[in-house]
Design goal:
The complex is a heterodimer of chains A (about 260) and B (about 140). Chain A has eleven helices and six strands. Chain A is α/β, with parallel strands linked by helices. With about 140 residues, chain B is α/β, with parallel strands linked by helices. Chain B is built from six helices and three strands; from the N terminus they run ααβαβαβαα. Classes of the chains: A alpha/beta (about 260), B alpha/beta (about 140).
Amino acid sequence: MRILLADLHMQQKRETSLKVRVRRDTDVVLIASHSTPLRNRWRQGLQRRFAVSEATRWAGLRDRITHLKPAVVLLDVSLPGRGKLSRIATIIQSVPQIKIILLSQSPQDREGLLALRLGARGYCHGIQATPLMRRIIEKVRSGEVWIARKLVTMVLEEVASLSAGHGQGSRRDFSPGQSDLTFREREVAKLLVTGATNKEIAMELSLSEKTVKGHMTALFRKLGVRSRLRLALLLSQFVGSSRRSAPDGEVRRVAGIQ
Amino acid sequence: MADRRGNDRRAGVRRLRRERGIQVVGEAQNSTEVRAAVDLKPRVLVLDVELGSDGLTLLRIVRRTAPRTKVLILADRRSEASLLNVLFAGARGYLERAAVQRFLPRAVRVVDAGETWVPRRLVSRITDQLVGLNARD
């Protein structure tokens, strides 16, 4: 009798854990924000349809996402910090398929443009009616990009003006805004992405290390990043789309960045 | 309203005529009629992308001869590959035929207001272009 009861007990336990397993097959949505009311609101609206996870800080977020592999991330722009949006490039670099929807309490066009350039899949106001939020997540999850209509116009204008800078038919060229970087800066950038050190770049381009460092500083300034690693990460996204741009015709992994 | 498919064209016109604030000033079913129609200086031209031998060329001509006229392109679902070409040739909007009854008046108003009308489903085609380019800020 005892054995029978124990058996039944085990079976119930198994069934419960099976239920949990079924729930985990549901798409995971990670909600990342400092704000508790905001997280609560999103979680309450989404937990029926999705398996909701939360994050409250920027530190460790990339690792969290790498392990959790959520279908979609709702990321409050205040988490990387206003003006530090380029930080999300590190996440997208680590988990290239990740779909990040950036949410802002006061959406701004320039910020939205930057978000898209960095690889975000959505940019909109943090407060949405719950059915709409669910819809946004589902659409983004299925591969769409979600932005305000006005932003679509801006994206078009941006693409058009940047393409004009590159000339006909070379829209997919890796070279960052030719109208803004000097020839040397572009050369340095291309080598940086292949993992070269300053010394190696200097040798390759027959320049002094000091000169290379000067170009590096200019690159940081012009591209709005503050470190070599961030610069490499930002640029390396574009190398993938244009393999012919690496100096020796093949793309080497970004490695050994000091 | 420029559409070589008569039934669709008439249905589109009827749909627009039901709207307050929208006045249909002309119809066209071939490129000659389109060029005549733009002389009327409509604020918006709804243009079938397959009209004439080359809808894109016609679009560019319209943009040159009537720069103030905003063009909303009408296309079959099959033609979605040309969304970017259409937008870069100067159209302000891209509307699929299947969406006409539901969205034509709204698309016309949005385009008239200076915004862009594209199927939400296709927005990623435009933003994908952006990710491949770097920029100043």
